[in-house]
Amino acid sequence: MLRLTPFLVLVALLNSLCYPFIALGLTYSPHLTFAALRAIVAGLFLAMIAIALRRPLPTDLRSWLALASIGLGATSFAYFGMFHAAEFVAPGLATVIANSQPLITAVLAFFFLSERLRGLQYAGLCLGFLGIAATSLPQIGGGDQAAFSIGLAYILLSVAGIAISNVLMKSLGRYVDPLIAMAAQLLLGSIPLVALALIFEEPTRIEWTLEFVVALLALALPGTALAYWLWFWLLGHAPLGRVNAFTFLSPVFALILGATFFGEHIGPMTLVGLILTALGVVIVERAALATPTENTVAADPWCDRQRLP
């Protein structure tokens, strides 16, 4: 496990970079157009790798319908919420709130997949949600409450889309190759984004500056494709529960980056909330590791790190 630690930390860092690059790119592009481009570039890149490795395509309609549904949640709804939230909520805070997604997924898995929670997992869920509330409290009491409320609603839409797609992905199980699944859901999920962008935006308004190209490529390649690739490799070398415990590093990195590059203020309440959220996620994952179950499927909300067994 020790030799895997640098790669686990790298994945957490890649996830934390997503919101800052979204905030940077939105200066030069309409929201939905930028979101669609990210999904298309990442999806095509993964598809090319899958083709080069001769990974098998699904042959049944059920798998394709499942992939389309997953793409609708994990890409269409998630990116719609994510890219709009960046306009209203600071990058570091948004990443912290978004990391409630594993906790929400655990609740959905309990109701829809009959995955029973242990006592410690209930405690972890409560701690996690308390942490999210504590982190959000300074913003709720701040000056621009309306903007924060709008941003929070967009984040929750994104988190809900990814959490629901995780439940669907688990039901898909081992029937679809991971690279094919990730490429397909990104490309299928980009279709509604493209349609909405054409209807409500002017895609030609993109300013193809160096900053925008860097933001787009950073989001699509390291932030999505590389994160997928590393995550699949890590799952083949370590138990999911132990690997997944490293997700708590993403909000830590995000707040540090937000304070360094975006002037975000990290007050005492924000620190308390971050610690509670991290403890909640770690407790849930450690309790899951102590229970002998089959591998679960989950995703990181802001870099779509979806997992197949």
TrEMBL record:
Please indicate which superkingdom the organism of origin belongs to: Bacteria
Compartments, record wording: Membrane
Tell me yes or no: is Transmembrane helix among this UniProt entry's keywords. yes
Give the record's membrane topology.
Multi-pass membrane protein
Question: Gene3D superfamilies of this UniProt entry?
Answer: 1.10.3730.20
Which residue intervals define the domain EamA in the entry? 7-136, 150-284
Q: Name one GO cellular component term.
A: membrane
Which InterPro entries does the annotation name? AA-Vitamin_Transporters, EamA_dom, EmrE-like
Q: Does the keyword GTP-binding apply?
A: no
Keyword annotations for this protein, in alphabetical order, are: Membrane, Transmembrane, Transmembrane helix
The record, for SUPFAM superfamilies, names: Multidrug resistance efflux transporter EmrE
Q: Which residues cross the membrane?
A: 34-53, 65-86, 92-113, 120-140, 146-167, 179-200, 212-231, 243-263, 269-289
Which protein family is named in the record? Belongs to the EamA transporter family.
- What is this protein's name? DMT family transporter
Task: Record the organism.
Answer: Borborobacter arsenicus
